[in-house]
Design a protein that fits this description.
It comes from Glutamicibacter mysorens. Belongs to the peptidase S54 family. By secondary structure, this protein is an all-alpha fold. Helix content is 58%, strand content 2%. The protein has ten helices and two strands; from the N terminus they run ββαααααααααα. The protein has a two-stranded antiparallel sheet. Helix 6 crosses helix 7. The N terminus is likely disordered.
Length: 285
C-alpha cells in the first residue's frame, strides 16, 4: 500500500511515523504514533516504538561496578586489548629489523626520545618467548579480576600509571646506558593494586604475599630482571588503586573525587619523569 491510501470510511490510512510509505494500524503504547513491524518493540503490554524504547533506556539508572565505574557485561575488553597490543608489538619486533631498538627504554635517551617511556612497556625480549608469555598470563589473571570491579576507564588509567611508574623506576635507579623493556612494571602495578582491592580478604592476601616475596627475591637474584621497573610500577599501582578503591561508596562525589585524584597523580608522575629525564640528559649534554 502507498502513502495516501483511503480507508473504507473515507479517511487516510495511518502510516508509520518513521516510514511514511508503510501503512500501519498498530500504535505505540507510549506515544500513540503508528508504527510498522520494523519499528515495533514488544512490551509486556502491547508494543513500543524504537524512539520510546531508546528514551526509556536513557532514563534507566546506570549500573555501577564495585568501585564506581560503568558496569558492562561480557569479556574484559581492556585487558584483552592490552594483551593484543603486546602480542602485536612482539610480532612486529620479529618482522621489522631494528624495531626493538626503537622501543627499548634507555634512560640516557629518554629525554630525546620520550616515546620510549611507554613503548618499552609493550615490547619484550625476542630471545625468549617465555618473557612475553609470563607477563601476558599475569596481565590476564589480574586484569580479569580488576577490570570488572573498577570499570574500563579506571582500569586503563591504572595500567598506564603502572607502566609509566615502571619507566620512572628505571630512570631513577638504573644505569643511564642500560636498556629495559617489558610489561613487568605494569604487571607489578596490577599485582599490588590487587592487594588494595582484596585488603580485607586475609586468605587472598596471604597467598599473594607469598607470590610477592618470591618475585622480590627473584628480582635481585636472577640477572636480566629489572627490579627497578618492578618497584616503580608497584608503587604507582598501589597509589593508583588507592585513588580508586579507598573513596567510600557513600561519598556523593565519588567518581569526581577518583578522577581528580588520578589526574593529580598523573600530573605528579609526568613531572617526576620530566625531572628525571632532564637529570640524566644534563651530564650527557
Amino acid at each position: 500500500m502507498s502513502f495516501g491510501q483511503v480507508s473504507p470510511e473515507g479517511q487516510a490510512a495511518p502510516t508509520c511515523f518513521r516510514h511514511p510509505q508503510t501503512v500501519s494500524y498498530v500504535s505505540c503504547n507510549r506515544c500513540g504514533r503508528s508504527i510498522c513491524p520494523q519499528c515495533q518493540v514488544s512490551a509486556p503490554v502491547g508494543v513500543h516504538c524504537v524512539d520510546c524504547v531508546a528514551q526509556a533506556n536513557k532514563n534507566l539508572p546506570q549500573q555501577k561496578t564495585q568501585f564506581g565505574g560503568r558496569a558492562r557485561s561480557g569479556a574484559p575488553v581492556v585487558t584483552y586489548t592490552f594483551i593484543g597490543l603486546n602480542v602485536l608489538v612482539y610480532l612486529l619486533q620479529w618482522i621489522i629489523p631494528g624495531f626493538t631498538n626503537q622501543l627499548v627504554l634507555a634512560p640516557a635517551l629518554a629525554a630525546y626520545e620520550p616515546w620510549r617511556l611507554i613503548t618499552s612497556a609493550f615490547a619484550h625480549s625476542t630471545s625468549s618467548f617465555l618473557h612475553l608469555a609470563m607477563n601476558m598470563y599475569g596481565v590476564y589473571i589480574f586484569g580479569t579480576m580488576l577490570e570488572p570491579r573498577m570499570g574500563r576507564l579506571r582500569f586503563t588509567w591504572l595500567y598506564l600509571l603502572s607502566a609509566f611508574g615502571g619507566s620512572l623506576g628505571v630512570l631513577l635507579l638504573s644505569d643511564p646506558l642500560s636498556a629495559t623493556l617489558g610489561a613487568s612494571g605494569a604487571l607489578a602495578g596490577l599485582f599490588l593494586a590487587t592487594f588494595v582491592v582484596f585488603r580485607s580478604n586475609k586468605q587472598a592476601l596471604r597467598s599473594m604475599g607469598i607470590i610477592l616475596a618470591l618475585n622480590v627475591a627473584l628480582g635481585f637474584v636472577i640477572s636480566g630482571i629489572s627490579w627497578q621497573g618492578h618497584l616503580g610500577g608497584a608503587i604507582l599501582g598501589i597509589l593508583g588503586a588507592c585513588c580508586i578503591v579507598l573513596i567510600p561508596r557513600s561519598n556523593p562525589q565519588r567518581a569526581r573525587t577518583q578522577i581528580l585524584l588520578l589526574t593529580a597523580l598523573s600530573i605528579a608522575l609526568l613531572a617526576a619523569v620530566y625531572i628525571s629525564t632532564e637529570a640524566v640528559k644534563w651530564p650527557l649534554g
